[in-house]
Amino acid sequence: MLFNTLDRYVMRTVAKPLGAAMAVGLLMLLAERLVRVLDATLGKKNSFGVVIEILAYLVPHYLGTAIPAALFLGLLFGFSRLSKDSEVDAAMSAGVGLHRLTLPVMQISLLLSVVSVLIFGWAQPHARYAYRSVVFDLKNIEVFYLAEEGVFMQAGSRTFILDELERGRSAFQRVFVYDYRGKAGAETVTATDGILIPQDGGKRPVLRLENVHRLKIEGLPDPTSAAPPPGFEIAQSSVLDTPLGKVAGDVFRPRGEDERELTLPELYANLDTPPQGSSPAAMRSEFNKRLANVATLFVLPLLAVPFAVGSRRSRRAYSFAIALAILVAFHEAIEQGSVAVKSGALSSFVAIWLPFLLLTAFAIWRFWNACFGLKRDRLQDLAERLGDFFQRLFRKFITANGDPA
Questions:
Q1: What's the CA gap between 148 and 145, in Å, rounded?
Q2: How buried is 207 (Cβ within 10 angstroms: 0-12 exposed, 13-18 middle, 19+ buried)?
Q3: Residue 291 gets which letter from DSSP?
Q4: CB atoms within 10 A of CB 152
Q5: By residue range, what is the domain housing residue 68?
Q6: Is the whole model's pTM more than 0.85, yes or no?
Q7: Residue 67: CB partners within 8 Å, gap ≥ 6?
Q8: Of 196, 211, 243, which residue constitutes the final position of a domain?
Q9: What is the pLDDT of residues 321-352, one digit of tens each?
Q10: Does residue 370 share a domain with residue 308?
Q11: Residues 96 and 198 placed together within one structural domain of the fold
Q12: Does any domain span residue 73?
């Protein structure tokens, strides 16, 4: 048998708080971003579909954060329950040590590490690129769908104002469009009517204008020069079709100009030949940070279990606080270390892998003492002293302010 009854029981005990923590954490992270997404999409054509699409692209990004945090909390609460109900003591009296009880959760860590490799290695890079592509479209194309009557709006290099709108047909009346092209000049277009025509294959919609008057200036005048003013062109037409966006025919850039949009194999293959816009240091930083995040999942059971087990009268809340503080500090060290590697200030080993090795050594030492040591845990003593300190502080506060009852 792959798992016996005790293994399955331990896995169920840990899986319940793990699943709850992952669901709550993911929902909270998405809810924070949902406010900004709604602010950018409300009133837009098919806005509900756009919101769902953007949130779907954000899920892999937030899963990368939620999985280790949920695993750590699941281990803390699961083994705390086993210890508090004396089930750890019962197992040890039957000859099943704490290290043996940890074996099934190590297998959970292995499974989650495989999922994390897929997320960090493939899902996040593609989802990040897709998310940026949608945001690009929102800023440069769909802005026309957000137009308000009588309000100047910007779409790339174009400034436009519409008089009357019919959102059901994506049509409008009395249009003014000004396209500033820098040294190349500018173009002004006015029309009595206009309509947005969707294009197949995900192409940019076409803005069709009717009864068009166009003024095109072929450069910028230089008042300090004796050269003649730039030429201009005045034209009229009954119908004018123009693609929307910054430049006609322009599309979002190819994936991979940012190292965070590259998969793990692509990162490894291009460590010394980074794409335009990146650097070898940035490639090494991203590659090593992803590997460190995956490897951390194997260390979390060794780190969490000693903080979760203890005497029934121990102050577990303060032990949990110390454990979470260590995990947050390690995560911040990895993030800042990746920034240092990207800037070229430190090597990947010093900035990323040295904190990982220190955390691993600390976790193994704590786990070994919890499983086979007889000395009292010094961190447990620290948690007890913290508990006593805050209890005395609370009593002084109650005494100074009187009993609220």
A1: 9
A2: buried
A3: H
A4: 12
A5: 5-138+256-400
A6: no
A7: 22, 112, 115, 116, 119, 297
A8: 243
A9: 889 999 999 999 999 999 999 999 999 999 99
A10: yes
A11: no
A12: yes
